[in-house]
Specification:
binds adenosine-5'-triphosphate; 2 domains; alpha/beta; nucleotide-binding; ATP hydrolysis activity; five-stranded antiparallel β-sheet
């Protein structure tokens, strides 16, 4: 039932944009696709949708190659958008729904439902080009959803949205996923990806370098602990646990907070005991490395622009 991206390779002339990209998005799962500019996200998504051919590899859905008829069930939000600027919002959505085989009345109902849901019902009679960019994006999401797709592939759907629209978009994606739809979207807003996605894939220079839940991506990194010991003298961390490293330090008149990265095999309790020995301890606990930092770590070793084939 899953959407399987298997070994995609794609070159543009001598530029190898994708080099064996593989990952799976399960039904009911929101998959966040992240990577630096030029890493290969759009190329992967366009191949998934079938608007671009891969040199090698395959996209499968429910175990079979995603062919032309199955692609009718994909809801796609392209990066370059692609609405007709001078067509009216409502007419355009009905037209797109009908292209996907819906009857006139079902298409109209779906258009009405989604424009209301995305907060643009009062703009149905306006030309798309008269809407603000954020509202055009809401129309674009309606266009991806209006034919009740069974797969959703969205290229940077959150870029340029106001916070209310981000919330609406997030809720809609979660609902679709809960209805069993595999949802894949790309984004540079990593806090949002961390909050919303069940699993995340990081692509660098055309290769998947990490796939998993954010918690899974965290494992393997050294454990970190946060401790607030206002009376602690300089150097207490390194003295308490040789090899321990302070990765963040914040001092105010009545607190001294440090995030400590411990060497493998050492326990946070050692830091706690040492902190207590220095005086009062106001805060102590594990620190969850944010996705932003995992991402920086994963992509830092090379530039993300695709390499020559
Ligand atoms: N039509 C094209 N012709 C030539 N090169 C291309 C073409 N489309 C993309 N590329 C190159 O392929 C690589 C991957 O581009 P892609 O658009 O997939 O990256 P991306 O991860 O979506 O980037 P961004 O985050 O900037 O949108 C880049 O080096 C890009 O310059």
């Amino acid at each position: 039932m899953a959407l399987e991206i298997d070994g995609l390779t794609k070159s543009y002339g001598t530029l190898r944009a994708l080099d064996g990209v593989s990952f799976t998005v399960r039904p009911g799962e929101i998959f966040g696709f992240v990577g630096s500019n030029g890493a290969g996200k759009t190329t992967t998504m366009r191949i998934t949708l079938g608007v671009l051919d891969a040199d090698a590899g395959q996209v499968r859905w429910r175990g079979a190659p995603l062919d032309l008829s199955a692609r009718r069930h994909v809801g796609y939000m392209p990066e370059e958008r692609g609405l007709y600027p001078s067509m009216k919002v409502g007419e355009q959505l009905v037209y797109l729904a009908r292209l996907h085989g819906m009857s006139a009345s079902a298409a109209t109902q779906a258009m009405e439902r989604w424009t209301a849901r995305l907060g643009i019902a009062e703009r149905r009679a306006d030309e798309v080009q008269k809407l603000s960019l954020g509202n055009q994006q809401r129309v674009q999401l309606c266009a991806a959803l209006v034919h009740e797709p069974q797969i959703l592939v969205l290229d940077e759907p959150f870029s340029g949205l106001d916070p209310v629209a981000v919330d609406v978009m997030s809720t809609v994606l979660r609902e679709r996923a809960d209805a069993g739809v595999p949802v894949i979207f790309s984004s540079h807003q990593l806090e949002l990806v961390e909050r919303l996605c069940d699993r995340v894939g990081i692509i660098r220079a055309g290769q998947m370098v990490a796939v998993g839940t954010v918690d899974e991506l965290r494992t393997g990194g050294a454990p970190r602990w946060r401790v607030d010991a206002p009376a602690a003298p300089p150097g207490w961390v390194e003295t308490a646990v040789p090899g321990a490293r302070i990765v963040r330090r914040l001092q105010t008149p009545d607190s001294l907070v440090v995030d400590v990265e411990l060497p493998e095999g050492r326990d946070g309790q050692e830091i706690l005991q040492a902190a207590i020995a220095t005086g009062p301890v106001r805060e102590f606990g594990p620190v969850r490395t944010p996705l932003t930092e995992l991402f920086r770590h994963v992509v830092s070793t090379t530039t993300s622009e695709a390499r020559s084939a």
